[in-house]
Write a structure and sequence with these properties.
alpha/beta; 14 helices; 305 residues; globular; 14% strand; D-Maltodextrin-Binding Protein, domain 2; 7-stranded mixed beta sheet; 7 strands
């Protein structure tokens, strides 16, 4: 009988130890952050390895289009299994503009010294995506501004959809000119028509495409292996550079809200680190005002789209 009691005692102890181990492991298993993104893929979690290591958090990335994210959030409501949305263009943000996102406590923003610029309510700028010009050097002069593409050069782009943001920004820029300067400058309608008249079809491949004059975002260039590997190809950032925006927002009642806020703090620390941002095909958000370059707030561009 004593042996039976002793055996039962050991079984009880083992079960207690086992249950304690499970309870201790649960918080670790739950230490993860789920990001839905239209430009990051599962393999890209390694690019944020420093964040995962520093915060002891498992990072899970789900590649989804902005439209898919919008439909998913509408369907799941507060039961969504994603914590943070990371979008690569204002066109994607516009798709999600009627979706509510989590408001962050002012105390947190102050305590963490969050300097990230807002896009619209509860969205933050992660970085910018400049519209660049690219060509192969030859005997011809090449344009130094977007405006010249509507008058003297034939151009193309691998992503015409993204140019909607550029056009909206160009329209706002022209509207900001004084009446005197506006009289001497072609109207947006004239510029837009000229841009369309000088546009040619983009051709994939190493021959024709490699010699074409391109207007595209830095991200699109960065994502095209053939362009990146073309060592002779020149990239120009016009003096007045228009940009698209990368942005992220936290899902309402995110299951891993604490870790989502930690991610925001981590990004805030690297927001001006060009080397860090280049790994994602973006540049630091401009710290200038409208008087310098062609910087116009993301909110104004969104309203113009």
């Amino acid at each position: 009988m004593d042996k039976i009691k002793l055996y039962a005692f050991f079984v009880l102890i083992l079960s207690v130890i086992s249950s304690c181990s499970i309870e201790e492991a649960k918080p670790l298993a739950m230490r993860k952050l789920v990001i839905a993104s239209d430009f990051l893929h599962e393999k890209d979690a390694r690019l944020l390895g420093a964040f995962s290591k520093e915060a002891h958090i498992k990072l899970e990335i789900r590649h989804m289009t902005a439209d898919s994210i919008s439909q998913y959030l509408k369907k799941t409501g507060y039961n969504a299994n994603i914590d943070l949305v990371f979008i690569r263009s204002l066109m994607g943000v516009k798709t999600l503009e009627h979706q509510s996102f989590q408001e962050l406590e002012p105390e947190f923003l102050v305590a963490q010294n969050i300097q990230l610029k807002p896009i619209i309510d509860h969205w933050f700028v992660a970085g910018v995506d400049p519209f660049i010009l690219s060509y192969l050097p030859d005997s011809l002069d090449k344009p130094r501004s977007y405006r010249e593409l509507s008058t003297d050069y034939l151009w193309t782009s691998p992503n015409f959809t993204s140019l909607t943001v550029l056009k909206a920004q160009a329209k706002l820029q022209l509207q900001s000119l004084s009446k005197k300067k506006r009289k001497k400058t072609p109207s947006f309608k004239e510029w837009s028509r000229g841009l369309k008249d000088h546009r040619i079809s983009y051709v994939e491949g190493d021959s024709t495409a490699s010699t074409q004059l391109l207007l595209l975002t830095y991200y699109d260039y960065f994502s095209n292996d053939k362009l990146v590997k073309s060592k002779k190809r020149v990239i120009i950032f016009p003096k007045k550079t228009y940009v698209d925006y990368f942005g992220f927002a936290i899902v309402p009642q995110a299951k891993h809200y604490v870790f989502a806020k930690r991610f925001l703090s981590y990004w805030n620390e690297h927001a001006e680190n060009t080397r860090f941002l280049n790994r994602f095909g973006m540049r630091p958000a401009p710290q200038t005002n409208q008087k310098k370059g062609a910087y116009i707030s993301a909110k104004k561009i969104l309203e113009a789209l």
